[in-house]
Amino acid sequence: MESCPLCETKFETENVWTNRVRFSDTYTDMGKKYIDINPLFYEIWVCPGCLYAAYRKEGFLNIQGIIKSNFKKGLDMRKKISRTIDWNASRSFEMGVLSFKLAILCLQERSGVSAARYGSYFLKLAWLFRFKDMKEEEQTYLKLAMARFMEAYSKETAPEVGSMGETGLVYTIGELARRTGDTKTACEYYMKVITNKEMQGDPQYIRLSRDMLSFAKEGSPVEFIK
Predict the structure, then answer these.
(1) Which of 47, 133, 140, 64 is nearest to 93 (CA)?
(2) How far apart (Å, rounded) are the C-alpha atoms in residues 166 and 162?
(3) What is the DSSP letter of 27?
(4) What is the DSSP code string of 97-135?
(5) Within a 10 A sphere around the Cβ of 136, how many other Cβ atoms?
(6) Which of 106, 130, 99, 158 is nearest to 224 (CA)?
(7) Rg, the chain, Cα only
(8) How far is CA 204 from CA 35, 50, 117, 123, 207, in A?
(9) CA 61 and chain centroid, separation
(10) Phi/psi at 37 (5° precision)
(11) Which of 49, 110, 131, 203 has its CA 20 to 30 A from that of 95?
(12) Is 0.90 surpassed by the pTM of this model?
């Protein structure tokens, strides 16, 4: 039983056992091709009372930057997105999508949020739509994610990029550009990773940038990391 840090409503959450999650491939933008169970359905906790939504566990409990009085005023908008969903029910694809949309709306109630954080939510929404082969919706959210990641890279001194580091952020911008048909921008960002020796992050992104630069120039429709 969990308790909402904003309205104190108590609610049950669903957890997915790690050993039950299987995937067959990793996409070039780091999404997974899941088999049967998609853990993204369960990644966002939603309070059924005030409809506060955020990443599960510690992320949900962290309400830094949220002014409670302002948050209450946004309840009608959150209800509009949530529609008649019973957030105590077992998660479906629709609930997975709506949980991320609510989480994005809740991010807007926080002060000082990195554009990269928005980017990560948009990217995971794109992965959810990819899971159902909904290409138009996937493209929409890939473009939104790319725009926010580009904003974080160009305007923020310390964007919230998690474990992927600067190399991962720049590689991801390039890869999202490639996946949305902007080959010129894709090659530009792959080259940034390859040539900037001072860039910090996981070295795997340097190798991937070299590979994807070659594929982008050839026009090869690569989907998965090989």
Answers:
(1) 133
(2) 9
(3) B
(4) HHHHHHHHHHHTTBSS--HHHHHHHHHHHHHHHHHTT-H
(5) 7
(6) 130
(7) 18
(8) 25, 41, 22, 20, 5
(9) 19
(10) -95, 125
(11) 110
(12) yes
**159-168 tens-digit pLDDT:** 888 888 999 9
pLDDT digits (tens, 9 = 90+) for 168-224: 999 999 999 999 999 999 999 999 999 998 888 889 999 999 999 999 999 989 999
3-state secondary structure of 88: coil
CB 217, CB 180: distance < 8 Å: no
191-217 in b/e form (b: 16+ CB < 10 A) is: ebbbeeeebebeeebbebbeebbebbe
C-alpha torsion 132→137→139→145, nearest 10: -100
What are the angstrom distances between the C-alpha of 97 and each of 3, 91, 92, 103?
22, 10, 9, 10
CA gap 75, 80 in Å, rounded: 9
